Amino acid sequence: MIYLDSAATTRPCDEAVAAAASALTDVWGNPSSVHKMGLDAHRRIEAARTVILSSLGVRREGELIFTSSGTEANNLATLGVCHSKQRRGKIIVTEGEHASVWASALEAEREGFELAAIPTKSGALDMDALRASLTPDTVLVSLMLVNSETGANYNVAEAFRIVGEAAPDAIRHCDAVQGYMKLPFTARSLGADLISISAHKIHGLKGAGALYVNQRVRKLRALAPVIYGGGQESGLRSGTVNVPAVLAFAAAAERAAKTCAADAERMKLLRERAIHSLGSIGLRPNLPPEAAPHILSVTLPGIKSETALNFLSSRGICVSSGSACSTHSRNISRALLAFGLTEREADTTIRLSLSRETTEDEIDTAAAALEVCVRTLARM
User: Is the dihedral of CA 110, 191, 334, 149 positive or negative?
Assistant: First the structure.
């Protein structure tokens, strides 16, 4: 089996599995309980929080709210900011945002907020459109760091600098789920008030995500909960913390941080190898001006992506047609349309995504299989 769908999820690393196993057998108490078992679990959760904050370059100037996923972190950021406001204002996102931000933004619009979407033609943020959209009543600007379908690496730091100058009261949120541990950044370098990340994209377990919240947001009380209950996670995310998944998250982050730069460089070389191999068989990938090292979008000549996926899967090669969260939707990908593809092109586009475990042989085998796929299916 050749797995080239790491933007959807990654294989849990040994360190994450060991941390989860320890939590299940040694510290299975409820971290909200005040007895020894609960306090032991609580201490491990706080240690994990420190590790993950450190991976974002944060020491004391913010906090981390654990969630069940990147999707929940994005919902908390988007709707949490909107629900904290007594007066309706404007929210700004990109046209190709992940469904968890886009759907949240549409819900906010139904609640009375004005919604503006910034173009991302060819995989670049339209800074002029951003400037034109910013108004004094802008309450939230949410921009993804890496597009999960095209691999476009957006210049979020520059965009947030523009936001800070034109709408200084606006809260700045970055969905960094696909960029975390793939690109070098810190909370400070991004200029973000809120940052969403997820465990299972970095060889952790499914069931754990997090939202970084800086002191500015807490001081302004600019974030309200979207889940109510016992008031865990500083009152911003009620519900018993998933101890095994959170401890595995920290273990995966600690492991990834040790080789992050080297892993990214290696994935970049593998991606370039794939681009060259696909080009030699007449396939032209969709290349943004700045790209993450692990995602490659390829439009096939007149072959529906679902058909190609089934063909490749029958030969033991796992790729996808875009974001795994949108796979079951019948709609044409917004991200690919925003990139500039036609509906027909978007419907014939697949995504290859790599991890630190991907090998050169796997890239070469996948390219050869794609050549057979195109030759066979195009003839049919």
Answer: negative
CB 308 within 8 A of CB 4: no
Question: Looking at the structure, do residues 155 and 264 belong to the same domain, yes or no?
Answer: no
- Residue 143 DSSP class: E
Tell me: do 163 and 294 sit in the same domain. Answer: no
User: What is the C-alpha separation between 342 and 362, in angstroms, rounded?
Assistant: 30
* Known catalytic membership, residue 325: yes
Catalytic hit among 260, 318, 325, 373? 325
Residue range 147-202, pLDDT digits in tens:
999 999 999 999 999 999 999 999 999 999 999 999 999 999 999 999 999 999 99
- 242's CB contacts (< 8 A; 6+ apart) are 66, 68, 207, 208
Boundary residue ending a domain (198, 229, 254): 254
Give me the CATH number covering residue 333.
3.90.1150.10
pLDDT tens figures, 278-302? 999 999 899 999 999 999 999 999 8
- The DSSP bridge partners found for residue 195 are 174, 212
Query: What is the extent of the structural domain holding 264?
Result: 2-7+260-379
- Give 213's strand partners: 63, 194
